[in-house]
Amino acid sequence: MYDLIIEDGTILSSTSRWVADIAVEGGEIVYIGPRPGGGARERVSAIGRFVVPGFIDGHVHFRDPGHPGKEDWASGSRAAASGGVTTVCDMPNTSPPTITGEAWREKAALAASRSVVNYGLWFGAAAGGVEEARRMVDEGPACGIKVFMGASTGPLLVDDATLVEFFKGTRSLMGVHAEDEGVLQAQRLLWEGRVPPTHHDSRPAEAAVVAVRRLVELTRAFPRPVHICHVSTEAEVALLETTRGVLPITLEASPHHLWFNHEQPLGNFGKVNPPLRPEADRRAVWAALRRGLIDTIGSDHAPHTREEKERGYAEAPAGIPGVEFIFSLLLSAVRQGRIGLERVVQLCAEAPAQRFGFVRKGRVAVGADADLVLFREGELVRLTADHILSRVGWSPYLGQNLAPKPEMVFVGGRLVSKAGVIVDDSGRGALVSPAREG
């Protein structure tokens, strides 16, 4: 007897649509086709609904423990699940910062005890940490090495010599926050004692371009997979278009760089690194996405509280919450004719699974994990605070007309969310990594 049969769903991939039944057993898809033989403990009619793989958000910052009132693995994973994200990859600059194997295992234990969605954990590059990174990523359970060329502090901010060491000494996927620290330091001196007109003025496009140019040089010299996070400028896109198909560099875009520009009156609630950019840059990133130059969407979910964001400019932390609205935002773009459904599946499921080496994720296929999202295309709804599950309770998208959250979200064949409401948080997601999935 099957655990679950989803009947008559329109299954979407990046290249096709077809109607079939899906049978699930032990958290795995075991059959796709016409009526499967045998019974099922649960049956779901998907007539008139699309079925897509659960979304993979390769860029979140869950901040557990030690921060009362802030997002943690319990609240963040529920927010993710409510919005159709069934796998998240947490960055190393959270608590505890994962720049040692011990800290990485501590965070993995936190996620294992609290997360209702699947989880991968990045390992942070730090001076003197090449051997540890090799053990944890090249040969171990981490999902990739994260490098901060700028925007971070302490051991997570790497200088060029350390960056070269990691290029030479490791081989696994390297995710990069590409802003050049030298350019950023010069801007800090320029604006010392003054509040810049916008955050973009303090962190100009030049910082991103200089960093990306250096990454291209290093990838040519020491070929290895590089994933540039939250691309935000026309100049970056133009530079990286010349390397397409030549170097193993892929690009991530974040929703806030697609939906907002630096002139919109968000104040510190729009303060994020890299900054929101001029309208020409926002349009250029959208154009790159439509042309296939953007490979994945990552929310860069950084859930700072309202109280933190209401501090003065210099004290307010950078970051925007977003993991629970990737689905709603992109489906609203589909509704508006800006992108196709198949492209959404590619950006948010297939491509991140391939880039991270999560072979059991990102597809509706026999042998894949039963992380599934069911939805209908329909009218857009006005986003209100009542729709937010993230503990921070605010979103820059409030008041916008977005697609509703998915009708049903399954994690490992277990129904976790229904119409944006968590209906079962008793289960726990599983650790994902190339080592475990391959």
Using brief descriptors, characterize the structure shown.
globular, 438 residues, 30% helix, TIM Barrel, eight-stranded parallel beta sheet, nine-stranded mixed beta sheet, alpha/beta
Low-confidence stretches: none
Overall geometry: globular
Residue-averaged pLDDT: 95
Distance, first to last CA? 28 Å
- Indicate the CATH class of the domain at 54-356: Alpha Beta
Number of helices: 14
- Counting DSSP E segments of at least 2 residues, the number of strands comes to 19
Please describe the biggest sheet, giving its number of strands, its sense, and whether it closes into a barrel.
9 strands, mixed
Task: Determine the CATH topology of the domain at 54-356.
Answer: TIM Barrel
Helical content stands at 25-40%
Identify the CATH homologous superfamily of the domain at 54-356: Metal-dependent hydrolases
The CATH architecture designation of the domain at 54-356 is Alpha-Beta Barrel
In what range is the share of β-strand residues?
15-25%
Please tell me how large the radius of gyration is: 21 Å
Going by helix content, strand content and strand pairing, the class is: alpha/beta
